[in-house]
Amino acid sequence: MRLTEVIRRPIITEKTTVIREDERTLVFQVAKDANKIDIRRAVEQLLGSKVVSVRTSVGHGKTKRQGRYVGRRPDWKKAYVKLREGEKLPEFLQGA
Question: For strand 25-30 and strand 7-10, is the pairing parallel, antiparallel, or unpaired?
Answer without folding.
Answer: antiparallel
